[in-house]
Amino acid sequence: MLLKNIFKSQPQDEWKPVIEQFERVVGKDGVVRRKEELLTYESDGLACYRQRPALVVLPRTTEQVAELVKICHQNDLPWIARGAGTGLSGGALPIEEGVLIVTARMNRILDTDVENRQIVVQPGVINNWVTQAVSGAGFYYAPDPSSQIICSIGGNIAENSGGVHCLKYGVTTNHVMSLRLVTPDGSIVDVGGEVPEMPGYDLTGLFVGSEGTLGIATEVTLSILKVPENICVVLADFTSIEAAGAAVTDIIGAGIIPAGMEMMDNLSINAVEDVAGMGYYPRDASAILLVELDGLEVEVATNKQRVIEICNKHGSRNITTANDPQTRAKFWKGRKAAFAAAGHLSPDYFIQDGVIPRTQLAKVLTEIEALSEKFGYRVANVFHAGDGNLHPLILYDNSVEGQLEEVEALGREILKLCVEAGGSISGEHGIGADKNCFMPDMYSEADLETMQYVRQAFNPKGLANPGKMFPTPRTCGEAANAQNLAQSTEADLY
Ligand SMILES: Cc1cc2nc3c(=O)[nH]c(=O)nc-3n(C[C@H](O)[C@H](O)[C@H](O)COP(=O)(O)OP(=O)(O)OC[C@H]3O[C@@H](n4cnc5c(N)ncnc54)[C@H](O)[C@@H]3O)c2cc1C
Predict the structure, then answer these.
(1) pLDDT per residue as tens digits for the range 39-76
(2) Where in the chain are the domains?
(3) 3-class DSSP assignment, residue 263
(4) In angstroms, what is the span from residue 155 Cα to ligand 1's centroid?
């Protein structure tokens, strides 16, 4: 069955019945249809790809989402969930004929249960609000993407987002207890439960990281953690990336699991210092490491000493430590602002997100440097060093014809390096529209086919976020044709 594509192929007044149905569910002010207003939604954080959607709808409740999705299902309309639109893989990139279901109005904290260490939120709640809601009681929500002051919990669920504190405490999936979902036929389904490890299939785990292709999360129960007794951040500089990489390997090898361990290279250090001007990061360093240690006071003190010894062994010239919350926040401020600061280095930048085994850090970074020279584009490196999650920022100018294509080719070469090193094409930003053509670099035909069976069980018409995550002939040409796409629905191919 081909999608009816009513917005593209039919005259405007024939859309009216559908728009009226949407308006009956969310009111007139819950449907955005004017072209200039739709511009807001034409891209996510990967702003080099843009497409205006046909319509945007703004529900407030699970029941409204279910009604909207049913209307899409009955009319064969493709739809895409969108949270805050900060995704970096084009996951919420609209399609011309599609409806965007935006969760911005689903922004209520529904229940806080500190005794059971749980909080129930709507998907449009901003990540940082969760910690703010429970910090008075001495708790926090561990997954903390650098975008935490703007990204939504629904987007975090869909991307299985990570962050600075995910090295020790795990990524989003490790903190989701249960979900209320609307499946692509408009059914309301509950998965997971109040206790961990529920019997039966782990549908919560399946949904987390599914990038909006299996349905839309409308209520989320998250687990929260007690703030540790003691926290210390060590800031150390290095005269080579290799030395910083070796320090990372030795810290983990010594049995220390820092709450977070982040690295920035010289280009990123200077961008951050130019923009934030904190004076904390030595401008002449080849790399800096930020190591956060937490736990009981005695444990933190012991580990701090060990980390300092290891950094000294690898030639660190300056080591500063911070225990008080204000200085710790200042140390982290630069790292958290690193992506934004890259905007100071060039008109545009293309962020890649790959994973490598920690021990390969120095080798892969040297190869990235060689690729940067070969392609003629500067690459700034910021990464979650503790878990080998690289974020090369390729600097370019999108107004110069042809540069985006060259930068995309460089990005793909970098991801190939990651796979060859035994890593992955995504650590936390997801596949989306950006990397769906690269899935065959990592997965066999049988692997991808199995994933398609899962997607079809939830999304048989292919209406939920079509064209994302998996290669299709439409988006990937030969790359997709090389795969057996017998399991794809025709909806993907339109
Ligand atoms: C400056 C900056 C720093 C960042 N740092 C990090 C980082 O440290 N770690 C990290 O992991 N990411 C990071 N990101 C990426 C991004 O913030 C995360 O992927 C985030 O989870 C996206 O949330 P969002 O609300 O913006 O989702 P969107 O961009 O709106 O959507 C992302 C995906 O989620 C789907 N989706 C949205 N809501 C729902 C829902 N309720 N149900 C089902 N699917 C849904 C969409 O269809 C889409 O596929 C960063 C981004 C920026 C701009």
Answers:
(1) 999 999 999 899 999 999 999 999 999 999 999 999 99
(2) 6-102, 109-226, 230-339, 346-420, 436-493
(3) strand
(4) 4
Q: Residue 463 is encoded by which pair of tokens?
A: 């209406």
CA pair distance 487, 494, nearest whole angstrom: 15
* Virtual torsion, Cα 452, 170, 102, 67, nearest 10 deg: 60
Residue 356: band (very low, low, confident or very high) from pLDDT cuts 50, 70, 90: very high
Task: State in Å: Cα 189 to ligand 1 middle.
Answer: 23
Rounded to whole angstroms, the Cα distance separating 437 from 111 reads 41
Quick one: which of 176, 24, 171, 159 has its CA closest to 83?
159
Task: Return the CATH architecture of domain 109-226.
Answer: 2-Layer Sandwich (3.30)
Among the atoms of ligand 1, which is closest to the Cα of residue 161? Answer: 11
Whose tokens are 């080719």? That residue is: 409
- 453 is written with which tokens? 């069976």
Q: Cα–Cα–Cα angle for 80, 83, 85, nearest 5°? A: 90
- Of all protein residues, the one whose alpha carbon is nearest to atom 34 of ligand 1 is 155
Dihedral-angle region of residue 197 (phi above 0 means left; psi in -120 to 50 means alpha; beta otherwise)? left
Kindly give the number of the ligand 1 atom that is closest to the alpha carbon of 340. 1
Residues 6+ apart with CB under 8 A from 2: 490, 491, 494
Q: What is the pTM of this model?
A: 0.92
Q: Do domains 6-102 and 230-339 have the same CATH topology?
A: no
Residues contacting 276, CB < 8 A, separation 6+: 333, 334, 337, 341
Spatial separation of the C-alpha atoms in residues 290 and 275, rounded to whole Å: 19
Q: Give the span between the Cα atoms of 72 and 411, in whole angstroms.
A: 35
pLDDT at site 337:
87
Kindly give the distance from the C-alpha atom of residue 159 to the centroid of ligand 1, in angstroms, as a whole number. 6
Q: Which residue's entry shows tokens 């279901």? A: 101
For ligand 1, whether the C-beta of 465 sits within 6 Å is: yes
6-102 to CATH, choices 3.30.43.10, 3.30.70.270, 3.90.1200.10, 3.30.1300.10: 3.30.43.10
61, 107, 149, 151, best to mutate for ligand 1 pocket (most atoms within 8 Å of CB):
151
| 249 ligand 1 Cβ < 6 A | no
Cα 74 from Cα 464, distance rounded (Å) = 13
Which residue, judged by its Cα, is nearest atom 2 of ligand 1?
147
Helix (H, G, I), strand (E, B) or coil at 87: coil
Beta strands in 266-358 (DSSP E): 287-295, 319-322, 348-351, 354-355
Name the fold adopted by 346-420: Alpha-Beta Plaits (3.30.70)
**Ligand 1 center to residue 108 CA distance, Å?**
18
pLDDT category at 16 given cuts 50, 70, 90 is confident
Q: Whose CA is nearest to atom 39 of ligand 1?
A: 154
Please provide the average confidence, as pLDDT, over all residues in the chain. 91
Ligand 1 neighbourhood includes 260 CB (under 6 angstroms): no
